[in-house]
Amino acid sequence: MSILINRDTRVITQGMTGKTGRFHTANCREYANGETAFVAGVTPGRGGQEVDGIPVYDTVAQAKQETGATVSVIYVPPPFAAAAIDEAVEAQMDLVICITEGIPVSDMIKTRRKMESSNTVLIGPNCPGVITPDEIKIGIMPGYIHRKGSIGVVSRSGTLTYEVVDQLTKLGIGQSTCVGIGGDPVNGTKHLDVVKWFNEDPETEAIVMCGEIGGTDEEDCGRWIAEHSVKPVAAFIAGATAPPGKRMGHAGAIIAGGKGTAVEKIAVLRECGVHVTENPAGIGELVKTLIS
Amino acid sequence: MKVHEFQAKDILRKCNVETPNGVVCESVEEVLPALQELGGSTWVVKAQIHAGGRGKGGGVRVVHSKQEAQSAAKSILNQLLVTPQTGPQGQQVRKLLVEEGVSIQAEIYAGLVVDRTRQRVVLMMSPEGGMEIEEVAQRTPEKIFKVHIDPIAGLSDDSANAAARFAGIPEPSVEKAAGFLKALYQAFWENDASLAEINPLVVTESGDVIALDAKMTFDESALYRHPDIVQYRDLDEESPAEIEASEAGLSYISLDGNIGCLVNGAGLAMATMDIIKLYGEEPANFLDVGGGATTDQVIAAFNIMLRNKQVQAVLVNIFGGIMRCDVIAQGLVTALKQIGAQVPVVVRLEGTNVETGRRILNESGLTLITASTMDDAAAKVVEAVRS
User: Least CB-CB distance to A281: which of B194, B275, B277?
Assistant: First the structure.
């Protein structure tokens, strides 16, 4: 078991004929069952072509119908990325993972509004993707740092997730699934959604949550954890030294109106029974103390 | 992206949001003709800087004569204005907005922002015009009325009327106020704003509803489709280092500490700053070189960091994923040889091909301090500034 994706998942790449989409799809195909998992690409106007031996379709609906894929990953440039999500949602994909960084916030507000009546799960945008070690990798993360195991990882950032995974793997602690939910202010899946899924996944023994300044998603997640019987959760919140009013790289990482500080988030999480470390180098060690 | 008050008002007027008549002046000589153009006998002289709290810093003056207007202009223009938001060093005032005086019947707060949790634009209204909304929210949250706006339907008449009534708009002006709010939302939505704050929105003695002040910021990711708003960018209001960084594709924010950091990825960059603090020193900056960390970017990054004379050492923390460590190490070595950094540089590389990467660093002939983990790197950089 794992969450969201496994060795049987079939994936289509939206933006397959672009440089980024092609490069990362090739990388993903080299990882575990990637060769059989990535079954199609979509680029409007390029239907009927092949890229690296994978058939390209004009629309997501066609690609889904022809291949039976249930997941799509998006590398489409920012001005067109929200429309690409809309298309995948309309085609009723189960899961859409949007890697693209820099989508206008108003586009995402409209896309999320359209998704209100849909069952599609959206991960991202502006995220590294999702990986279930030794089974399937969908996204831009380096596959080899992962190891199969029982820790669920959820994070808003890319390289910080790699850092955490690397610490775990070096301690011999494997991961069930790692989910990058992205650093944008308006996104699909939140920390809380992923924690709920990990909590129900029999293979996941403990959860690592990497948050950062801005918004209140980490607090919302903490409050749910406090009210439910949940597996052990280790957390780190990046940005304790960030000044207010400055956007720290990620569009969503900004302390606005005195809200969203690391101090506040850490305090709430601790009150809720989450194990928080203030040392980003100590996350692996903390997890080690939480598992048998 | 931030814009000045007079620019925000230009944008609002184009969307039929009423504002007072005003003239922008860049010298004291321009003030007299401005007063003549505006007419009347009461005017407001307002410093135009991006930071808020201008009134508290003495940057907003109500004047009742031409002499008074000129002396107010003289005391503000080309001076450093210190407000609660500028920091103690203040901000140079390069432009004034001279506006006609307005007789006020009621002062209201109106603001639009993106509510991240609800994933919608929210209109906030409060009868406490002139107060900071954060303060009102903390002390008397019951005095704030919120409407979450459906992006498809827009702001409805009913919601706009309800918001206006809640905020205490006198009944004869409610319809006008609702129209104002709908126009304000249009201006926000059509221009991809991330904030529009009218504080205060006023009802004049004659019952008109106008934006006495206006603050707007815009979503950087959407600027590509708003060339008219990009033209409002005022580089004088931004730090030269931050402008240079954005041109090099770097995300850089200057801080007060003594240890420069160069990191790939925003989350890891913040985490690196945090661990420096945890080890007892302060980061001098946030710097995200992105996923690639090319030689040119590293050169630009070091140039920007080292121009800050407070920097006593630099910590490079790169997690090479798709971009391999050997490529990054080669870029670092080329950059550092070209720059000839005069401060200790601690490098922590991790990820794909890290062994080759470390060997390239060790054999480079540069006096680098290499570190294996983030803990190791933080300890070494702190030791370097203390010894």
Answer: B275
pLDDT number for residue B137:
82
Per the confidence metrics, is the pTM higher than 0.80?
Answer: yes
CB atoms within 10 A of CB A247: 19
Residues 6+ apart with CB under 8 A from B297: B248, B249, B250, B289, B290
Cβ within 8 Å, pair A253-B277:
no
d(CA A230, CA B110): 42
Phi and psi torsions of A157, nearest 5°:
-125, 165
Give the residues of chain A that fall short of pLDDT 50: none
Summarised one tens digit per residue, pLDDT across range B98-116 is 999 999 999 999 999 999 9
Tell me whether residues B267 and A217 touch, CB distance under 8 A.
Answer: no
Which residues of chain B make contact with A244, given a CB cutoff of 8 A?
A: none
Tell me whether residues B221 and A243 touch, CB distance under 8 A. Answer: no
Order of all β-strands in the sheet with B313-320: B251-254, B285-288, B259-263, B313-320, B345-351, B369-371
Taking one residue from A and the other from B, the number of pairs with CB-CB distance under 8 angstroms is 178
B147 within 8 A of B158, measured Cβ to Cβ: no
User: Which among A131, A137, A119 is positioned nearest to A155, based on CA atoms?
Assistant: A131
Residue A63: exposure state from Cβ atoms within 10 A (0-12, 13-18, ≥19): buried
Q: What is the DSSP letter of B163?
A: H
Distance CA A11, CA A25 (A): 10
Chain B residues within 8 A of A113 when measuring between CB atoms: 119-120, 150-152
Chain A residues whose CB is inside 8 A of the B116 CB are 185-186, 214-217, 252
CA atoms within 13 A on the CB side of A40: 25
- For chain A, what is the HEC assignment? CCCCCCCCCCEEEECCCCHHHHHHHHHHHCCCCHHHHEEEEECCCCCCCEECCEEEECCHHHHHHHHCCCEEEECCCHHHHHHHHHHHHHCCCCEEEECCCCCCHHHHHHHHHHHHHCCCEEECCCCCEEEECCCEEEECCCHHHCCEEEEEEEECCCHHHHHHHHHHHHCCCCEEEEEECCCCCCCCCCHHHHHHHHHHCCCCCEEEEEEECCCCHHHHHHHHHHHCCCCCEEEEEECCCCCCCCCCCCCCCCCECCECCHHHHHHHHHHCCCEECCCHHHHHHHHHHHCC
* Cross-strand bridge partners of residue A210: A155, A236
**Is there a contact between B268 and A278 if contact means CB atoms under 8 Å apart?**
no
The contacts of residue B298 (CB under 8 Å, 6+ apart) are B262, B289, B331, B332, B335
Which residues of B are the active-site residues? 109, 197
**Residue A11: which of A183, A130, A116, A149 has the closest Cα?**
A130
pLDDT (0 to 100) of residue A259: 81
Q: How many angstroms separate the CA of residue B293 from the nearest CA in chain A?
A: 13
In this prediction the ipTM stands at 0.93
pLDDT band at B292 (very low <50, low <70, confident <90, very high): low
| B187 neighbourhood in chain A, CB within 8 Å | none
Burial of A173 (0-12, 13-18, 19+ CB in 10 A): buried
